[in-house]
Automatic annotation (TrEMBL):
InterPro entries, per database record: AhpD-like, AhpD_core, CMD-like
Residues of the Carboxymuconolactone decarboxylase-like domain: 26-105
The protein, known as: Alkylhydroperoxidase
Example of a GO MF term: peroxiredoxin activity
Length: 117
């Protein structure tokens, strides 16, 4: 299955299951997560890069993929995203390298999709 489609379909199905079974606390956490990335003193674009780099440091591959998608969506270039991930790799150390590998693979797929759209 296509790398992008597999992630998107799985995330969508899992989110539906969570929301269908969510209590007030989980619904509020999801809402807080959404509004955190709206424009404020920092614009949404900057917040997405922060989300990407912190997700990389925390070694959350699902979060990294989500923020890679958003970074491409808000207009970052491939070079800007790579540079942002380099900062995350320096902060997180060499343990982040396997996650960086998967992130770059996913990023390339996103830009291939964008070029072929």
């Amino acid at each position: 299955m296509d790398l992008l489609k597999e992630y998107r379909d799985r995330r969508s199905a899992q989110n539906k299951k969570v929301i269908d079974n969510a209590d007030k606390v989980v619904k509020r956490i999801f809402s807080l997560d959404t509004i955190t990335f709206h424009d404020g003193a920092l614009d949404a674009k900057t917040k997405e890069m922060i989300g990407l780099t912190t997700s990389l440091v925390l070694r959350c591959d699902d979060c990294v993929k989500y923020h890679l998608e958003k970074c491409v969506e808000v207009g970052y270039t491939k070079e800007q995203i790579i540079e942002g991930m380099a900062v995350g790799n320096v902060v997180g150390g060499t343990i982040v390298i396997p996650h960086l590998r998967r992130a770059v693979e996913y990023l390339e797929a996103l830009f291939d999709e964008k070029e072929n759209a």
